[in-house]
C-alpha cells in the first residue's frame, strides 16, 4: 500500500533522511523506533507530504505522491488541491494533538469532512458522534478542547483523523506528551483500530504495545533504516550494537522503575 | 475660572466631537486596510509581501507630522481636491494601518505550527486552512494590541492641528490665544484626551478578559 | 491626471545642506531627551514596582497622565502655560522636558514589566542567599531587567526621535522646521517632505543599529 523508494530529505545542511526504502502492505502495522533526531517524524511527514522529499518517490495505493504522470510519461507537479485530496486519504495523529482550540470537539471532528469533502452537516455530525462513541467521548462533543485531558484530546484527534475515512493512519509519538496514566486509553483505541484492520504506521516508544500490535518494526538511526524485522526479533536482538544500546535505555529504565515502584509498596 | 470654563467648554466639546469623528473614522479605515494587508503579508506572493513590508517600514518610521505634510501636499498633486479634514483622515488611516498590519501579521504568525500541520494533514488547502482554522484564531490574539492602537490614534489626531485641521488641540490653541489662559485651557484639553484614551484602555481590558479564556 | 508629477532632484541636492543644521538639532534634541528619559523612566518604573504606596501612587499617576495625553498638548502647556507660573524655558529646553516626560512614562512601563518578569524567581533565590531586598534589586534583578528591556526601550527611543518633529511648532530649529522653511521658500513641498521622511528613516536606522549593538553586548546577562 505504501512504497518508499530512495527517499532523501535535508533541512539546509542537515541531511535528515538518507536513502530510505521500505514498503507497507495493506492492513499491515509497522512500528518505527529510534533515537530522537533520527528522522522518524520527518519520515512520517514525508509520507503525508507535509514535508517534500528532496529525492525519491513515495507511492500511496499505487499513486505517486506529489506528482502525476502526464501522457508523455513525464512527471508533473500536482496542484495544491490535488495534493490536499491525496492527503485526506491518509490520517495523521500528532504528538501535540493539535486540536483546533476555537472549535468544539464535535466541530473539530466534522470540520474537515464538511469543508474538504463537502459532506452535509447532519451526515458529518452522525459519523462524528459514532466515532466519538467508539473512543468513549460522545458526551464531550459540545465541549472545547481546553476542557479535556491530554488523553481525551488525543482520542478526539484520532477520531478527527478517522472522520475523513482514511485507508492509512500515521501516528507520530502520540503518547509521548501524555502522563503515563493517560497513555493506556489512547493505546486501547489504537489497539482496536489495529484489530479492525487499519493499515498503520506508528512511531512510538511504547515497546510493549509494539510487541502486541506490530507486524513489522523498523529501527531508524541517523536517517537510515538500520534494522527491519518482526517485533520479537527486533526487541530480543543482540547483533546490532546501536539497536541494543537504544533498547537498553528503554527496557532497563522501565524495569528499574517498575522494580523501584514495587519495592516502595 | 468657572466663567472661563462655562464660556468655552461648549466650543471645546464641539471640537472634541470632531476629534472623535476623525479618530473613529481613521480607526475603522485603518483596520480594514490592515486586515487586508496583514493577511497578504503572510499569504501573499513574494512581491506583495516585500511591498507591504516596505510600506510598513516607511509609514512607521517617519514622524507623524511629516506624514501629515506628505499626504497633505501629495493629494492636490494627484488632482484631487479635498478638505484638510479628509487629508488628515487619510493620513491617520494610513498611519494606523501600518501598525495594525504588523499586529495582525504577528498574530497570524503566532499560531502554533501544529495547527497548520493538522489542517493540512486533514486535507485542507492553504486557503481553506487559513479561512477556517488560522484566521479565526488570529482574531482573538490580535484584539488586545489593536485596541491599544485605538488610543494612539486619538492622541495623534492632535498633530493634525498643525496643518490646520479643526479639532480639540486646534480649538484649544485658538481659545488660549484669545483668553490668555493657556494653563487652564490646555489643561482641560489634556483631561479630555485622558478621558477618551482611558475609556479605550478600559474597553481593551474588558475585551481582553472576554476573549482570554477561549485561546 | 497628475499635474506637477516630477521630482525636482536638482533642487533637493541644492537644499540638502540646509537640512544639515536641522538634522544636527534633531540629533542633539533627541539625545538630550533620551538621556533624561531613561533615568526618569527607570526611577518611575522602580517606584511603580515598589510596595510602598508613597512611591507607587505618584509613579502610577505620572505614568497614566503622561501616557494618555498627546505630546503636542504637553508642548503647549510647557511652552505657553508655564510662563504664567513664572517659569520660562527656551524652546529647546521645553522640547527636552516634554520629550523626556512623555517617552519616560512609556519607558517606566517597560522597566516595570521587565523588572516584574525577572523578580519572581530571582527575588526568592536571592532572599534565600541572604540578600536584602534593595541589594537584591541592585545586583541581581536590575541588571537582568535592563538587559531584557533593551529591545522595547529601543522602540521608544525611535518614537522619541520621531516625536521631536512636533517641536517645529514652537520654532525649535530641528529637521522638520527646516523642511517647512525650505518648502515654503521653494514651493517644492511634496519633494521636501518626502526626502525629510527618508532622512528620519535613516536616523532611525542608525539609532536601531546602535541599540542592537548594546543589546548584543548585554545579551550575556539575560537568562
What layout of secondary structure does this protein have?
The complex is a heterotrimer of chains A (265), B (215) and C (223).
Chain A: E1 2-11, E2 14-24, E3 29-33, H1 40-47, E4 55-60, E5 63-64, E6 67-69, E7 75-77, H2 80-87, E8 90-93, H3 105-115, H4 121-134, H5 150-162, E9 168-172, H6 180-195, E10 199-203, H7 207-213, E11 216-221, E12 224-229, H8 231-235, H9 241-264
Parallel strand pairs in A: 3-10, 3-11, 8-9, 9-10
Antiparallel strand pairs in A: 1-2, 1-4, 4-5, 6-7, 11-12
Chain B: H1 2-43, H2 46-61, H3 64-77, H4 84-109, H5 113-121, H6 126-156, H7 168-179, H8 182-212
Chain C: H1 9-49, H2 53-67, H3 71-81, H4 91-128, H5 133-163, H6 175-186, H7 189-217
Helix pairs in contact in C: 1-2, 1-4, 1-6, 2-4, 3-4, 4-5, 5-7, 6-7
Fold and architecture overview:
The complex is a heterotrimer of chains A (265), B (215) and C (223). Chain A has a 6-stranded mixed β-sheet with strand order 8-9-10-3-11-12, with helices on both faces. In chain A, strands 2-1-4-5 form a 4-stranded antiparallel β-sheet, with helices on one face. Chain A contains 9 helices and 12 strands. The model of chain A has no long low-confidence stretch (mean pLDDT 82). Chain B is an all-alpha fold and 215 residues long. Chain B contains 8 helices and no strands. Chain B is elongated and about 70 Å long. By secondary structure, chain C is an all-alpha fold. Chain C has a single domain, classed as MetI-like (MetI-like fold). Chain C contains 7 helices and no strands. The N and C termini of chain C lie far apart (59 Å). Classes of the chains: A alpha/beta (265), B mainly alpha (215), C mainly alpha (223). At the B-C interface, α2, α3, α6, α7 and α8 of B face α2, α3, α5, α6 and α7 of C.
